[in-house]
Design goal:
heterodimer; A: 273 residues; two-stranded antiparallel ribbon; 11 helices; B: 144 residues; elongated
Chain lengths: 273, 144
C-alpha cells in the first residue's frame, strides 16, 4: 500500500502543480475514495505535503522578487486565524459533511481559477488603509520594475480568513481562494497574487497541521509516502509548466477535478465515508 | 558627500526600511525555506527506510479513525521517540521539521522587521507567530 500511495501522490503533486490548484486537491479524494483512508488522516497527510510544496516553490519565487512580503505577512493573520478555526471545526464535523464541502469547494476553485484576471491598479488608485499598511510594491515587469497600488483591504482580509478556514477544514492550500482575494478584490497584479498566495500557503497549512498533529490525525506511515511523492511530483509539474503545451494538460486536469468533486459530493451525500 | 552617496540616500528614503534590507530578507527567507524542506525530506526518507525494513509487509488500517498514540501527537513525545530511533518516530520528527519551517520563516521576518524598527509590521508578524506557536504547542488537556 505504501508504494501505491507514493505513486498516487507523485501523480497528485504533478497534476496539482500543473493546474496551480495544489497537490491537496487530488491527495484527499485519492486517499479517501481509492484507498479508503479516513478523510481526517487524508487531510493530515495532505496538509504536511502542502507545507512542503509551498515552501519549496516560495523559496524560488521570493528570490525572483515577485512576492510581496508585507501583503503576505499582513494577510497571514487572517489565514492562520481561519486555519485554526477550520481545523477545530474539522475535528467535530462528520466525515461525510467534510467530503461534501470538499467537493463543492473543489468545483468552486476550479471555476474561479478559469476566470480571467482583473486589470491591476498600477501606480494609482490605492486606498488609504492600504497606504497606512504600506502594502504597495513593485515587481519585475517587461519594462523594468513596475509599481502597483492596493485596495479592498477589509474585503481581501475577510476572504483570506475564509481561505484559511477551508485550508484547515479540508487539508488543501486554498490557493485559488487566496488568489481570488488578492487578484479580484485587492486588485494586485496576477503574478504577485499567485506568488504571494503560495508564500502564505505554507504558514496557513502549518497552523492547521499543528492542530491535526496534536489531535492525532497525522500518521507517519501515511504522511511519509504522501510527502515523498508529492514533492518530486510538484517539482516535475512546475518544470513542465515552464515549457509549452500546457493547454491540453490543463483541460484534461479540469475534467479530472470535476470528476473528483462530483465523486466526493456523491459519496458524502450517500453516507459512504 | 559624493554623487554616489546622494543617490544611495534618496533610494533608501523612498521605501521605509530600504530596498536593500528587503532584498537581504528575501534571500534569508529563501535559504531558510529551501534548507528546511531539504532537511525534512532527508529525515523522513531516513525514517522511511527504517520503517519499511521493519513494517514493510504489514497492512495498516486507516479506514477507521483511532487516533495516533499520545507519543506521536506532541512535540515532546516525538522527541522522545526520536531518541529511541523508531522508524515512525524519525518520520514524525521529519514532519515536525517541515511544519517548523514556515514558523521559522515567520520568526526570521519578525527579527528583520524589528531590526528595521518597523514596529507596525513587527507587531503584525508577532501576532502570526503567536498563533502558530499556539497551534503547535497546544497541549492535549482542555481540548475535547
Amino acid at each position: 500500500m505504501t508504494l501505491l500511495v507514493w505513486l498516487g501522490s507523485l501523480a497528485a503533486g504533478f497534476l496539482g502543480a500543473l493546474t496551480g490548484l495544489g497537490g491537496g486537491v487530488v491527495i484527499v479524494p485519492m486517499l479517501s475514495l481509492v484507498f479508503g483512508v479516513d478523510i481526517r488522516y487524508a487531510i493530515g497527510a495532505s496538509l504536511v505535503s502542502v507545507i512542503g510544496t509551498s515552501s519549496g516553490a516560495a523559496a524560488a519565487y521570493v528570490k525572483e522578487g515577485f512576492t510581496n512580503l508585507r501583503i503576505g505577512m499582513f494577510l497571514e493573520i487572517a489565514t492562520t486565524l481561519g486555519a485554526l478555526v477550520g481545523a477545530a471545526v474539522a475535528t467535530r464535523l462528520p466525515a461525510d459533511a467534510i467530503a461534501v464541502i470538499f467537493g463543492v469547494v473543489l468545483l468552486f476553485s476550479a471555476y474561479i481559477s478559469s476566470r480571467p484576471h482583473k486589470t491591476p491598479l498600477g501606480p494609482e488608485g490605492g486606498s488609504r488603509l492600504a497606504a497606512r499598511l504600506r502594502l504597495a510594491g513593485s515587481y519585475p515587469g517587461a519594462h523594468g520594475q513596475a509599481g502597483y497600488q492596493v485596495r479592498g483591504v477589509p474585503g481581501g482580509f475577510g476572504l483570506m480568513f475564509v481561505a484559511g478556514a477551508l485550508s484547515g477544514l479540508l487539508g488543501i492550500g486554498s490557493g485559488a481562494m487566496k488568489v481570488l482575494a488578492m487578484d479580484q478584490v485587492m486588485r494586485i497584479p496576477f503574478k504577485v497574487s499567485t506568488t504571494t498566495s503560495n508564500f502564505m500557503i505554507g504558514v496557513t497549512a502549518a497552523a492547521s497541521a499543528g492542530v491535526y498533529l496534536n489531535r492525532g490525525y497525522v500518521d507517519p506511515g501515511l504522511a511519509m509516502p504522501v510527502m515523498l511523492g508529492v514533492l518530486p511530483g510538484a517539482l516535475l509539474g512546475s518544470r513542465l509548466l515552464a515549457g509549452a503545451r500546457t493547454r491540453v494538460l490543463r483541460t484534461i486536469f479540469a475534467v479530472v477535478v470535476v470528476f473528483l468533486a462530483v465523486e466526493m459530493i456523491y459519496n458524502g451525500a450517500t453516507g459512504r465515508f | 558627500m559624493g554623487p554616489q552617496g546622494d543617490s544611495e540616500v534618496s533610494e533608501v528614503s523612498v521605501v521605509p526600511g530600504g530596498l536593500e534590507a528587503d532584498h537581504r530578507l528575501e534571500t534569508v527567507i529563501a535559504t531558510l525555506l529551501r534548507s528546511g524542506v531539504l532537511l525534512a525530506t532527508a529525515v523522513v526518507f531516513l525514517g522511511a527506510a527504517v520503517y519499511v525494513l521493519r513494517h514493510g509487509g504489514e497492512r495498516p488500517h486507516y479506514a477507521e479513525f483511532h487516533s495516533e498514540p499520545t507519543d506521536l501527537r506532541s512535540v515532546s513525545g516525538i522527541l522522545t521517540d526520536l531518541s529511541g530511533l523508531s522508524g515512525r518516530g524519525i518520520i514524525q520528527f521529519g514532519l515536525l521539521v517541515l511544519i517548523a519551517t514556515p514558523v521559522l520563516r515567520v520568526a526570521a521576518s519578525l527579527l528583520a522587521f524589528a531590526l528595521k524598527r518597523d514596529w507596525l509590521y513587527t507587531l503584525l508578524t508577532l501576532i502570526v507567530l503567536i498563533l502558530l506557536l499556539y497551534s503547535i504547542f497546544q497541549g492535549l488537556p482542555g481540548l475535547p
